[in-house]
Every structure is written in C-alpha cells, then in structure tokens.
Write a structure and sequence with these properties.
The structure holds 2 protein chains of 2 kinds. Chain A is mainly alpha-helical. Chain A is 53% helix and 7% strand. Chain A has 6 helices and 3 strands; from the N terminus they run H-H-H-H-H-E-H-E-E. In chain A, strand 1, helix 6 and strand 2 (120-121) form a beta-alpha-beta unit. Chain B starts with a helix and ends with a helix. The chains are: A mainly alpha, B mainly alpha.
C-alpha cells in the first residue's frame, strides 16, 4: 500500500491479478494435460489387462508365475501332491543359463520354495524335488 | 464369498482406524470424527499391519479373532475418548467434491475389473511378498525356518513384514491362499489412501484443485501397472504419500494430529520396505529444515517411528539377515566408492528421466517442481523448503544406492528404476495441490491490501 500511496502502480512483490489468473490457468491446464496423457495410456492398458486375464482357467492362473518364467507345471504339481505342511524337502536342479541376477536353477529353487509352501525348502533333505530343463 | 470375506476384514480395519483417530488427536469430538472419517480406513490398515507385523515376530498370528479384538478395543476406547462431545452436524457436500468422488469411483471400479482377474505372476510378487504372506498364513508367525532360512535368501529376507502380514490376514479371513482375490487388497489400499489424502487436504485445498490432482495421480499409468504387480513399491509410495502430506499440513498449521498421522504413516512406510527408511529420513530432514524451531515434536515423532521399527531390526540382527543388494557401510569404502563414483550422475539422470516420463507419470513430477519454485517465490518458504529438501535428498539417496551397490549398475538400474522412483513421484503428486493452494492463497492475501489501498482516497 505504501508503494501505491507513493505513486507506484502496485506495491513491490505483489503479483498483478492477471498474472495470478494466468498462473492458475497454466496450472489447471498442466494438470488436465497430465490426466489426459495418463488416461490415454492407462485406460487401454486396463482394458487389455481385463481382456487377456479374464480368459485364464484356474489351472493357468495357478501356474501363471511358473508359466511366465518358462517352467513346466506337471513336475511341480506331481511333487506338491506328495508333500505335507512343514515337511522338509530339497531341490535338485542343474544351474542352467545365467539371467540378470540369478541362474535358471536359482529361479527353479525360488519357485519351488513358493509353490511348495507350506512345505519347507532346505539345503539337504531325504525328500528331493528333481527338475531338469528341456 | 472370498471377496465378501476380504471386504469384511477391511471393514474391521476401518472400524479399528475410526477408533484410533481420537487417540491420534484427529478427532476431539464426534463432529470432527465424522468430518475426518476419511482417515479411518487408511489409519486402520496401517495400524493393523503394524500390529500384525509385530505379533508375527512373537509367534502370534492375526486373523478374524485378532481383527475383531483390535476393532472392538479401538472402537470402544475411541468412543470413550469422545464421550459427551459435540455431535456431528449435516453439511451439504460441494458439487465439485461430489463430481470428483464420482470420477474417482468410476475409475476405481474400472481398475477393480482388472484386479479381479489378474494373475499373480511377477517375480518379486510371488518370490518375496506372496511367499512371505503365505508363510505367515500357514505357520502363524515369522518362523525362522522360512524367514531366516538359507534356502529362502532369494526372498529379500531383510524386508519388513507389514505387507505380508496384511496379506496373511486376508488369507486367514478368506480361509485360503487365494492370490487372485488378495490383489483387491492393493486396490483397497489405494481407496484408503485417496480418502486419507482428501481428508488431510480438503480444508486447505479448494475442491477445484484437490479432486483433479487426485484424479491425475490415480490415472498415472505407472500407478495402475505397479499396483497390479502386487509389489510393495506402490503400497510404500501410497503410505508414504499420506505421511508426507500430513507432515506438510503440520508444517503449515502446527496441528498435532497432522504430525501424529504422519508419524503413524511413516512407521507404516518403514515397515513396508527398506527403501522407506531413505524417504522417511529425507522427510524428517525436510521437516527440520522447514520448521527447525519446532524440532521437539519432530524428534518425538522420529523416536516413535524408530521404536516401531526396532523389533523388526532386532529380528533381522538376531538372524543375521542383510540386504543383498547394497550395504550403507560401503559408503565409507573409499576404494569401492572411487571406482563407482561415475555411476552417481548416471543414476541421477536416469531416475530423473524416469520421473519425467509422461507415459508413466503424466506431468506430476514437473508440476511439483514448478510449484516448489512458485511457492518459494510467493513466500510460502516453509512448505517449499520441506518439499525441496525431501525430494532432493530422496533423489540423491536413491542415486547413491547404485553407487554403493556391488551389483552391475546398468542391470541393477534398468531392473529397478521404474519402481524406485514411485515414492518420489507419488509423494510429490500428493504435495502438489497443497503447494498450489498455498501459493494461490499467498498471492490472494497479498492482493487484498493492494485492493484496499486502491480504494484509499
């Protein structure tokens, strides 16, 4: 106000009304653009996901993780049917090729640990799951 | 049927959360409880997860009985806390708010269709999170045979147990290890977080800003994609975003309840994933930089969070569980660091590019950056400093991890860059409407005396 009284068109540091409106409009436009860009990506992705996954059978769904890493389901199902909760088992699998962080054999061991729960994977056991790559 | 059981378990979490609100100071009367009931579901999920994760360490499994006890104790104690207080009053909802809620609901229903049919098939989802949830469900606790077992080292055994504990509660509620239905829990967490953010921001941010901002966040392709993977990165980001926003509100208003909500959510972030520690430390650094004169409540909240993390840290120390990707102590290994210093700028740039990718996150990150600058210029320095310090430290910290890691950096960066920036972008997006509203309010407040002056003869 002092600046105003001294003849300045507006006090120093006060944004003119038009600038504030422009800033708000720019922000609103950016937010809208963000939502529109995102929507054009995400909504088709949602539809694709629904279309591809709603066709899965219960068996495909059960083996979805193994399928994604290229493992045959039959050996896993056969071994799982013999297991009891908390029963210890080992895994015999060749190392296989090396991926980014682990060998294929490591991945089979990890998947066995997941798929055979609540049986417990250990390093050495009389009960052994054998898996060979084709 | 299993969906109904999952929803019933979540209803109990909501009740537990509603009972907690008076204890957090969020609700001091029935009226404020109703006004801020949007925080109940989120606080209930986080509190249930924290309690279940701790009980899992002492051989106590949480299922229907645990949920019922928690909900009953919480609700009754909360009601006792509010006895004789002001009754709720009906307030007409704003049209913009209703439109915003309707748009978000429509979007979440659409997402729900995808979550209802998606398989659990991404590596970390089954190898880390579902495996641990299944083990907690089957054994009733964090049995070292699995949680410290040599054969399970691949499962990042040093990661904390909040998310697997929530999954285990869901499996117990459903009576089955159902990896299909449990995905809905991730979507429900998003619902809870959106309600919490709306509640924290509603009386500081105009509806015209708030709801488009929440919609822009929910529409982000990376948010949908990562939530559907059932990894912990998005739950961490969502939980952290509520904490960050509630703490920002405390910076502006000094309301203790906001800091209490932040502390609870920070604890949830710490117990969701190890990376949470980086973001939480960065946020506390931001709080101290922005409100150093109020350091005592900040220190108290930080100590409370440290204490809530302590049991898990004792468990990992007792069983010799370590992070297999990096060790912070390597920051002082001069030989190692000097050979990898060049990785830092590469990681910094790569993560920046990831955050700016419009087809992953829309324009959320640049909007936040622009508003931090605007807030600084407009005089809202506390909030801008808080946001800037948190974001800068988080970004630098994430980049530093690639420097100290012994993994081949390009492979490590490529495989993780999309996920690690999630907490940064989601947190930034949650702060954006508050920054915008405060900058706008400051500009208006400055304009008022100008207008008054113009009328002076």
């Amino acid at each position: 106000m002092a600046g105003r009284l001294q003849g300045h068109p507006r006090a120093r540091g006060r944004p003119p009304v038009r600038l504030r409106i422009v800033a708000a409009a720019v922000f609103g436009a950016a937010l809208t653009a963000s939502a529109v860009i995102a929507a054009t990506e995400v909504l088709p992705a949602v539809e694709d996901s629904i279309a591809s996954n709603s066709r899965l059978t219960p068996a495909q769904r059960r083996h979805a993780a193994g399928d994604r890493i290229g493992l045959r389901p039959a050996p896993f199902d056969a071994f799982r049917s013999r297991l009891h909760p908390r029963e210890r088992f080992g895994v015999d699998v060749p190392p296989g090729g090396r991926g980014q962080f682990a060998t294929r054999g490591d991945v089979v061991r990890a998947y066995s640990a997941f798929y055979f729960l609540p049986a417990i994977e250990v390093s050495h056991s009389g009960l052994v799951f054998h898996y060979r790559f084709r | 049927m299993r969906v109904a059981e999952l929803l019933a378990a979540n209803a109990l979490m909501f009740v537990a959360g509603a009972g907690i609100l008076p204890w957090l100071g969020v609700a001091r009367s029935w009226r404020t409880l109703v006004a801020r009931i949007g925080l109940a579901y989120f606080c209930g999920i986080v509190a249930t997860g924290i309690v279940a994760a701790h009980l899992a360490l002492v051989h106590v499994g949480a299922g229907w009985v645990g949920l019922l006890v928690l909900a009953a104790v919480s609700a009754m104690s909360g009601a006792w806390h509010l006895r004789g207080s002001e009754r709720p009053a009906w307030r007409r909802p704003h049209a913009v708010g209703l439109v915003g809620i309707a748009a978000l609901t429509a979007l979440l229903v659409e997402y729900g269709r995808a979550f209802a049919v998606a398989p659990l098939n991404r590596y970390d989802a089954w190898a880390i999170w579902a495996l641990k949830g299944h083990a907690l469900y089957s054994f009733g606790w964090a049995d070292p045979a699995v949680f410290a077992g040599h054969a399970y080292r691949f499962a990042n055994l040093d990661y904390p147990l909040l998310l697997p504990s929530l999954e285990a509660i869901d499996y117990r509620a459903m009576g089955a290890f159902d990896t299909r239905v449990v995905l809905l829990q991730f979507l429900l967490l998003l619902v809870a977080v959106l309600a919490a953010l709306a509640t924290v921001l509603r009386d500081r941010v105009p509806d015209l800003l708030l709801w488009p901002a929440l919609l822009a966040l929910t529409l982000a392709p990376a948010l949908f994609d990562q939530l559907l993977t059932a990894y912990a990165d998005l739950p961490l980001a969502l939980t952290f975003a509520v904490a960050l926003t509630a703490a920002a509100r405390w910076v502006l208003t000094n309301e203790r309840w906001a800091l209490a909500v932040a502390a609870l959510a920070f604890a949830g972030a710490l117990l969701t994933k190890n990376e949470g520690l980086l973001f939480v430390v960065a946020a506390y650094a931001g709080l101290l930089a922005a409100a150093f004169r109020r350091w005592r409540p900040v220190a108290l909240a930080a100590v409370a969070d440290g204490l809530l993390l302590l049991p898990w840290r004792l468990y990992t120390a007792a069983h010799g569980l370590h992070n297999k990707d990096f060790n912070l102590a390597d920051s002082f290994d001069v030989h190692h660091i000097s050979s990898r210093l060049g990785v830092g700028p590469i990681a910094f740039r790569t993560l920046g590019g990831q955050m700016l990718d419009p087809f992953q996150w829309g324009l959320l990150a640049p909007l936040f950056a622009a508003l931090v600058v605007v807030a600084l210029l407009s005089g809202r320095r506390e909030l801008a400093v808080y946001g800037a310090v948190w974001a800068a430290l988080s970004w630098l910290g994430l980049s530093w991890i690639y420097v100290i890691s012994h993994n081949e950096y390009s492979v490590y960066l490529d495989s993780s860059k999309a996920r690690v920036v999630t907490s940064l972008v989601v947190g930034a997006a949650a702060l954006t409407p508050l920054l915008a509203a405060e900058a706008w309010a400051t500009a208006r407040a400055r304009a008022r005396p100008h207008a008054a002056g113009a009328r002076t003869p």
